[in-house]
Design goal:
alpha/beta, Rossmann fold, six-stranded mixed beta sheet, two-stranded antiparallel sheet, 12 helices, binds adenosine-5'-triphosphate, transferase
Amino acid sequence: MAPKLCSICQTERAMLRRPKTLQRLCRACFYTVFETEVHQTIQRHQLFKRGDRVAIGASGGKGKQHADSTVLAYVLKLLNERYDYGLELFLLSIDEGITGYRDDSLETVKRNRDQYALPLKIVSYEELYGWTMDRIVATIGQKNNCTFCGVFRRQALDRGAARLGVNHIVTGHNADDVAETVLMNILRGDIARLQRCTEIVTPGDMEGALPRSKPFKYTYEKEIVMYAYFKKLDYFSTECIYSPNAYRGYARAFLKDLEAVRPSAILDIIHAGEALLVRGDVKMPVQGQCERCGYVASNKLCKACLLLEGLNRGLPK
Ligand SMILES: Nc1ncnc2c1ncn2[C@@H]1O[C@H](COP(=O)(O)OP(=O)(O)OP(=O)(O)O)[C@@H](O)[C@H]1O
């Protein structure tokens, strides 16, 4: 039987089946569609303007197969050169202080810094908050530690970005992440987050949060992993040693089942989330400023200061 040809170029042998569309493609055409889709997303949503200084949230990859931030750094650098976006790119890594996990992935980020010739800034929970995740887990146990880590990371990225003097942050959140978050917010009934979670770019504010965007919002996780694999990019893949977020795990497993039956399910859920309109009389949190640190807050204290207060009092809630 003759080998199947790539459905785009019709000359090279098809080497893979594209997860998003199930098309059979050769490697070169896969790279082209992958990169072009990200470029089109950036253009369509006008994520950047010439002269922007952009920090790439670089975790080095985590989770069994995650390569998102490594691929993001590689592809943004490539597109910035290919299409002359005029961006200044930086890697920004947050060291949560998880021995045997983040310290290893930081080594990957340092190699990425050298491979892509991008400046790297590392800021740690220890220096920002006086606590490492190791010490937090030793104090509060493994039950709610993902909450602490998530809240601290959000603010840490803004603080690290301020030190770098950038005006925009990008993260490697992909289509699967966004669809999962839509499902989770529905399951939790969190209307405010449901409305915000599909936004490709969240605007900055006066309280120190910078504009943040997700250039991979429409990119499938499986394709990111494939791209990293075929391009032999250097990323780290080990599960976080502290308990994974169980509730997200269910949403994730459900999404994977749906994707197996119908690949468009991921995009369908994102589109459904985008189209939802929240009734005008639904109460939304009002954004103000934290009395203690000045960061955005919907109460007197921002979430990070509230969590820190509990930790420092030795009475974690
Ligand atoms: N420690 C960190 N330092 C800097 N950025 C981070 C860090 N952790 C996560 N991010 C950013 O947030 C995005 C989503 O993080 P999440 O934890 O969902 O995925 P991840 O599995 O860490 O992703 P990746 O595959 O990029 O490591 C990452 O792609 C990255 O841009």
